[in-house]
Amino acid sequence: MQSEGEKHLNDMINAADNRAKRTTIILDKKEREFIDSLVREGKEPGIKPLISKMLNIYRNMMIHDWRYPGEYYYGISRVALVNVEILNILVQQLSPEKWYESGKNIGAALKVSMETTFSLNTPNEENWSEVFHRLKIQGFGDFYIKDKYILIKSPFINHAELWRGILEGLLDAKLDTKASIPPLVFEIKTKHAP
Q1: Which of 78, 89, 114, 116 could serve as 120's disulfide partner, Cβ 3.0–4.6 Å?
Q2: Cα three-residue angle 104-110-63, rounded to 5 degrees
């Protein structure tokens, strides 16, 4: 049986474990100058919010799987940081008649990646907000769902037929294109039953 003093000490230790802990980070001169310039130019509000943002990016992008330089794995998928212009050149090499079918294949690959990496059943509409969050993290664009519509703001590729294929392959849903220039809008016609 614990004495009253031991119990009080254990309670204090447990309380201390639950509080925020102070951490000191020692930055070299160039790192500190860089951070100060970000704050001065208004790009970041301060060092603490910047570090919090970096940790959030680290968590969301699974940076701990990065084998620098140029080798980054997002679950089972290898990811490359590529200019959007390069992707648009590749898409332009496809005939427009192939955009939809190519998009379906891309969507199917994304579906496998998300299912194996995050155990996300992508056709289940309850998971769509997490699916769209994952797409945003990877730079595909900003996704919104409202009633029976999916909206993509700032898509990384602007071709609506390619996007219709990607989303149909990923979500197992049938979509109708309502706006074919960004922001892209798709109406959900049918959904896969989970």
Answers
A1: 114
A2: 155
